[in-house]
Structure formats: structure tokens, C-alpha cells
């Protein structure tokens, strides 16, 4: 029942995200929307793939080769992880190079980047499909994998070195610098506002003309403040998605390392860590819907069509 509920939540949640992006043009103004939609499609397919473990528990898929299924799910989860890393890089470039960002993040380059995400994910897990190591699902999730597919320490180290470690480092580096830059912008804007704050007018008896701040200097701080606030707010939303992603995936990665090294192995721990990682496919759409005002407006617009 838990697997069935999680499957329904993942599929329905990501379908809503995909439809909202198509119904809300404002969301598509950000280049990161391309990566968010890619992640939504990958998470949707992960939800569909949850039907296979459900059928396995009902003993309806005995005797089938587990490699195509395990390979496909591993590629989908890799796409989500790499997409989050690309989102963090995109926001880092947008904030550090605002003047040249439009020329750097062109639609053609974004499409090429998305193709490379899928290609890289497919190539990273290709050795497991050819017999070197076991990818995503453990034997207790898809029952018949337990005997036919064994974890190998070398393959685990290979995946950590080419996928988990680079993605984690990229996300930590970019978001640490993003929030550092946002704090710096906030301090600069506060200093400008204090500098251009109008002074009290002197009385008419003094004979001095009324003086105010230069007329063209007020809009600039206000404009920069709004832009900095939008950048920080959008970065915060994406940081929440990324933080939840790694919090849910960390137990799975740790268990994957312990199991491959022969240090610890337990069916219940394998089941819980695996499905905890899979539940992230639903958390992404939940966090985005609760944190992004433009997404909520698009969701209301979608509901009005129903």
C-alpha cells in the first residue's frame, strides 16, 4: 500500500508540474525551467517505474531479466541529480554574470545541455547493464534481483567518483557563493539607500531652497533591490529542492557504500533507504509548488480550466 501510494503521488505530482509549466508562460522566462521540466519528466518516469516493484511483490514478473529495468531507473535518477547540479550552475552564472548571461544561456545551448545530461547518465550506468555491478534497485525491492545481481565495490566507487561526488561538490560550491553574493548585494543596497535618503527640509524662514535627492538616483537602488530580492528568493527555492534531494538520497548512498564494501547488509535498511530516495521524486514538485508564487498562480490557472 505504501508503494502504491508513493507511485500515485509521484505520477500525479509531476504531471501537475509539467502541465503548470505549459500553462504559465511566466515560469518559462527562467532558463532553469528547462532543467526543472527535465527533472519533472525524469521523476514522472521514476513514478511509472514504481509499478514494476509493485508487480514484483505480487509475483507477476518472476523470471525476467532485471538489468534493463535497473539500468533505466538508475539513468532516470541520475538525470534528476545532474539536472539539479545544472540548475545551481545556471543560477550561479546568472548572478555572477548578469550582463552576459543572456548571451551565454541561449535556447540552443540549453537544449544541448539537456541532451548531454541524458547521454552522460546513460553512459555512466552502462557498465552495470553490461554486467559490471548493480545499479539502482536492491534485491528486496525487486525480489528476483537478489540472486542474479550482486554489488561490486569497484562499481560503487566508479559511480561515486563520476556522479555523486561531482554533483554534490557543484551544488555546494555554487549555492554557497550564490548566497554570499546575495548578502553582499543586500549590504550594498542598504548602503546606497542610506546615502540617498532625503534629508529633512529646512523651514521657509531660512531662505534656502528646498533640497532633495537627485531625481535619477532613487529608482536605481529600488530597481537593484527588487532584482536582488528576486534572485535571492529564486535561489532559495532551488536550494530547498536541492537540500531535500540530498537529505533523502544520503541514507541510500551511505547504505550503497556499506553494502558494496561488505560492511553492513540488511533487507529492511535496503528497502527503507531505496524508497526514501525514490520519494524525492514527489518532494520536488511539492517544494516548488509551496515556494514559488509564479508556480502557484499557474496552478490556480490550471485549476480554473478544470
From TrEMBL:
Name under which the protein is recorded: G protein-coupled receptor 21
Bilayer topology annotation: Multi-pass membrane protein
Keywords tagged on the record: Cell membrane, G-protein coupled receptor, Membrane, Receptor, Transducer, Transmembrane, Transmembrane helix
Segments of this protein annotated with the region Disordered: 203-226
GO molecular function: G protein-coupled receptor activity
Family: Belongs to the G-protein coupled receptor 1 family.
One cellular-component annotation, GO: plasma membrane
Entry's localization field: Cell membrane
SUPFAM superfamilies per record: Family A G protein-coupled receptor-like
Gene3D superfamilies xref list: Rhodopsin 7-helix transmembrane proteins (1.20.1070.10)
Source organism superkingdom: Eukaryota
TM spans (from-to): 6-27, 39-57, 110-133, 153-178, 237-258, 270-291
Organism: Tetraodon nigroviridis
Coiled-coil residues: none
Residue ranges of domain G-protein coupled receptors family 1 profile in the record: 13-288
Alphabetical list of InterPro entries matching this protein: GPCR_Rhodpsn, GPCR_Rhodpsn_7TM, TAAR
Amino acid at each position: 500500500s505504501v508503494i502504491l501510494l508513493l507511485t500515485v503521488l509521484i505520477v500525479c505530482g509531476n504531471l501537475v508540474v509539467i502541465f503548470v509549466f505549459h500553462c504559465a508562460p511566466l515560469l518559462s522566462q527562467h532558463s532553469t525551467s528547462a532543467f526543472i521540466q527535465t527533472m519533472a519528466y525524469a521523476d514522472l518516469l521514476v513514478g511509472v517505474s514504481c509499478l514494476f516493484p509493485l508487480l514484483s511483490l505480487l509475483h507477476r514478473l518472476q523470471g525476467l531479466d532485471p538489468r534493463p529495468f535497473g539500468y533505466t531507473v538508475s539513468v532516470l535518477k541520475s538525470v534528476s541529480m545532474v539536472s539539479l547540479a545544472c540548475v545551481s550552475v545556471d543560477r550561479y552564472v546568472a548572478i555572477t554574470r548578469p550582463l552576459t548571461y543572456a548571451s551565454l544561456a541561449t535556447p540552443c545551448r540549453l537544449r544541448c545541455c539537456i541532451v548531454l545530461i541524458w547521454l552522460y547518465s546513460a553512459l555512466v550506468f552502462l557498465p552495470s547493464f553490461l554486467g559490471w555491478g548493480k545499479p539502482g534497485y536492491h534485491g528486496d525491492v525487486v525480489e528476483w534481483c537478489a540472486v542474479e545481481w550482486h554489488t561490486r565495490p569497484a562499481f560503487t566507487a566508479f559511480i561515486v567518483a563520476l556522479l555523486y561526488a561531482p554533483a554534490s561538490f557543484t551544488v555546494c560550491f555554487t549555492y554557497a557563493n550564490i548566497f554570499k553574493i546575495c548578502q553582499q548585494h543586500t549590504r550594498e543596497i542598504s548602503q546606497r539607500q542610506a546615502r540617498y535618503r532625503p534629508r529633512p527640509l529646512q523651514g521657509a524662514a531660512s531662505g534656502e531652497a528646498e533640497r532633495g535627492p537627485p531625481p535619477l538616483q532613487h529608482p536605481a537602488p529600488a530597481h537593484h533591490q527588487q532584482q536582488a530580492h528576486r534572485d535571492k528568493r529564486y535561489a532559495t527555492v532551488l536550494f530547498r529542492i536541492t537540500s531535500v534531494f540530498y537529505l533523502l538520497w544520503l541514507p541510500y548512498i551511505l547504505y550503497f557504500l556499506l553494502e558494496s564494501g561488505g560492511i553492513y547488509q540488511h533487507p529492511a535498511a535496503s528497502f527503507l533507504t531505496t524508497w526514501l530516495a525514490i520519494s524525492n521524486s514527489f518532494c520536488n514538485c511539492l517544494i516548488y509548488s509551496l515556494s514559488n508564487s509564479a508556480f502557484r498562480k499557474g496552478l490556480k490557472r490550471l485549476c480554473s480550466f478544470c
